[in-house]
Amino acid sequence: MHGFFTEATNSTAQKLAAQYSKSLIEASLDPLITINREGKITDMNEALVHITGVSRNELTGSNFFDYFTDKHKAQKVYQQVFQNNAIEDYPLTLRHKDGKLTDVLFNGSVYKDNLGKVQGVVIVARNTGGQKWALDLQNANKELAYQNDEKEKRAAELVIANQELAFQNEEKEKRANELIIANKELLFQNQEKEKRASELVIANKELAFQNDEKEKRAAELVIANKELAFQNNEKEKRADELIIANEELIFQNLEKEKRAAELVIANKELAFQNDEKEKRANELIIANKELIFQNQEKEKREIVNKELKELNYTTKLDSQYTLSLIEASRDPLVTINTKGKITDMNEALVNSTGKTREELTGSDFFDYFTEQQKAREVYQEVFEKGCVADSPLTLRHKDGKLTDVLFNGSVYKNEVGNVQGVVIVARDITDQKRIATELIEARVFAELATEIAEEAKRRAERATITAENAVKAKQQFLSNMSHEIRTPMNAIIGFTKVVLKTDLTLKQKEYLDAIKMSGDALIVLINDILDLAKVDSGKMTFEKTPFKLNSSVAAMLHLFEPKIQEKNLKLIKEYDPQIPQVLIGDPVRLHQIILNLVSNAVKFTSKGKITVSVNLIHEDVETVIIEFAVTDTGIGIPEDRMGKIFENFQQASSRTSRLYGGTGLGLAIVKQLIEPQGGTIRVQSTVGTGSTFSFTLSFQKTTSDAEMGNEFIELDTEIKNIKILVVEDIPLNQLLMKTLLDDFGFERDIAENGKIAIEKLKEKEYDVILMDLQMPEMNGFETTEYIRHTLKSQIPIIALTADVTTVDLAKCKAVGMNDYLAKPVDDRLLYSKIIGLLKKTSLNAIHIESVNEEEITLKKEKYINLAYLKQRAKSNPVLMEEMINLYLTQTPAIIKTIKESLANKNWHLVSAAAHKMIPSFAIVGISPVFENIAKQIQETATVLDKTEEIEALVQQLEEVCAQACSELEEELNKIKNTIK
Ligand code: ADP
């Protein structure tokens, strides 16, 4: 080493510098080596010694490459230094001789001599071991920290990622669930949609259906109307059916009787057959006896003539003959010994039992019967009694078939008289039994059929009752309603009339006319509806009252005068003078008919005339037939509608109602009023020319006088100071009456009911009473009765009635009313009736007064009062005599009948006789108190256990009648004197 450095540092300064350099090199921790061109180590520092573990000496001259792990590489690096003059930081690894390795960074450069010739290479191998390790450690730490950080980050990221994952899983699940729900929702919505769609279809159908329904309802309404008509028809049909059902019942009863008769015949037949059978049995018994006898004979012969075989042969033939007879019988025949074993039989038994003869012979006889014990008893009976007849038993065939038989048996004996056994004939009665059963069945069937028919009848009756009740309810409703409507309507019309009479402007009059017309139309409609209901319920009844036809028609036509004048028409009445003055019929209904026809004629005619003609077309002793015709020159009726107009709610054309009003009920009612009375209605019409409505009605003729009428007496103003009592409860009607009567210049008082009226009558004198019928406290009928019988007053009474068509005019008459007026009251008619009645009474007054004077002299407690009779007979003494005579002959006869029937306890007759008597009380003016006795008898007689009561009443009645009769006889004498 020193060689190299020595050469370099030849001078001292140089020496010092070289030493310094050398110490620096030695101090370096990095190995420093110089190598010659051959690769041999020429010099080194301590660091190389240290790293290789090889001494300086050994190292010097040694092969540089040997100390590296990779010699080849080291060699290459060394060569590279020579080529490139230097190398920097080339990594190589030095090996210690102990094996320890040191990583170095190989930095080399060539060194040259002064001449610049390359001497060798100087190498510094920087030991990277310590540095690198620390660095590595540091780096490793950093790396670790970094990696830890990274790891933590990763962990955190992992946690986050996991959370995210978890979250995403949850989300996914949620989504999945949502998806499921969404799917379900979708499904549901689809279903909903489908439902909606089908609902829509249904709704559409429903809509269509409802439209249909609506149309149907409309159609039903039409049908309902028809139904109403139909139900009426049905009702009639029911009635017809009832009749048929009754006929059916009668027929079935007849059938039953026939069956019963057949049964009787069958029974007789049975009895006859039994007789026949008995005869047969008897014959058989006789035959048996004969047989037995012959057997006995045979046996006898056998005993006596055992040797006589020929004779035996004959006997055998005989027995064969008998046997063949027995065999021929169709009834089972059998012989049994004393032990009950079969000894012989015929073919019939073989057939009935199905056993062979061999099986039967010696077998137990009783085995072949269904009731063995009974068979045994019968058999024993035969032994006890010697015989038994017609004991019923049943034989059983081995196949189970049964044969009903009548068992006839008798004992047979041997020749010495010892009982050998029993011979039995069982008669087959299967057929008879069958016939008997059939007959019983037939009878049961007949009875059943009767029951069914009766049930059907009951049902039909119930149905009829239900239908009738429904109709009744309807009619009641209509009648109530129309009554309620009528009262205020009457007031409206009445007051309109009153106002119309005051001073009015033209316009006001026009308006009021319109109100009145509407009111009149409404009243007509209400009456029509009520009538229709009555027709429907079959309640339309017809009076038979004497009335004056001529004045009745005249009064009706009077009512149309204002209308006729207003329309500038002419009204012509043609009345046949041959018609009897007084006829019996229903004037109210006739009034209604003519009113309807004339009002139609007026309504549908705008110019020309209306002719009402009344003609007698037939007359005999008792009746007349009269034709009424209403002819107009109006619009006429098209031919095709003429058949229709008599139906409910039918008009000639749909325009009719608009142009002329009306409901199409009038003619229907007219028809219903005519036809039930036996009349007919016809129409002839030409459109544009006019129409004729004509009808015929028959009336009875009479010699008696008309009771009440619509006579229209010409107004006579001579009678003055007239005092009227109005008995009326409704304030509106009171006011109306007041106004009308004030207008006439009459004095008038008002009583709210019958009781008040009676009080007023006692205090003051009146000329006429106007009496409402329906009133609280005391109605019009009761009041009139009281006035006539208790007050014994003959003051003229006019009934005021809202319902002319239903009012019981007969009742008005019976209680003693003189006339009636329909509401709304026609003022002219009212005036004429009041005046007419006053005229009549003033005429009669002279007679009555004279009689009254005579009556005053009579005893006060007189039973009779002839005022009524006088009035009825118009004080005609002959008529009165006739009537009193009638009473005198009739009354004692009735009393006698009552007493006799009472003794016989014939209550029905008692009641009927008392009833018959009632009208006569009023005729001869006997007080209603006594009339009530007769009424009481009539009612009580139908009640059981009232015998004593009735006896007392009858006695009272007898006394009253006896007294009345004696009084009447006195009167009769007086009257007879006046006739003379
Ligand atoms: P309303 O008169 O209330 O309509 P009706 O039953 O009285 O009912 O008459 C039925 C129909 O007959 C009338 O609507 C009308 O068309 C016809 N008719 C009745 N009478 C006459 C007549 N005298 N002239 C013309 N048409 C008539």
Summarize the structure.
The chain has 980 residues and is of the alpha+beta class.
Structure report:
The protein has five domains: 21-129, Beta-Lactamase (2-Layer Sandwich), CATH 3.30.450.20; 309-540, Beta-Lactamase (2-Layer Sandwich), CATH 3.30.450.20; 545-701, Heat Shock Protein 90 (2-Layer Sandwich); 723-842, Rossmann fold, CATH 3.40.50.2300; 866-979, Four Helix Bundle (Hemerythrin (Met), subunit A) (Up-down Bundle), CATH 1.20.120. The protein is 60% helix and 16% strand. Helix 11 (430-500) packs across helix 18 (731-744), helix 19 packs parallel to helix 20 and helix 25 runs antiparallel to helix 26. With 980 residues, the chain is α+β, with helices and mostly antiparallel strands. The longest helix is centred in the N-terminal third of the chain and has 177 residues, at 128-304. The radius of gyration is 73 Å and the shape is flat. Strands 11, 12, 13, 14, 15, 16 and 17 form a seven-stranded mixed β-sheet that branches. A five-stranded antiparallel β-sheet has the order 2-1-5-4-3. Residues 600-601, 604, 632, 634-637, 645, 651-652, 656, 662-668, 691 line the site of adenosine-5'-diphosphate. Residues 723-838 form the Response regulatory domain. It catalyses: ATP + protein L-histidine = ADP + protein N-phospho-L-histidine. GO terms for molecular function: ATP binding; phosphorelay sensor kinase activity.
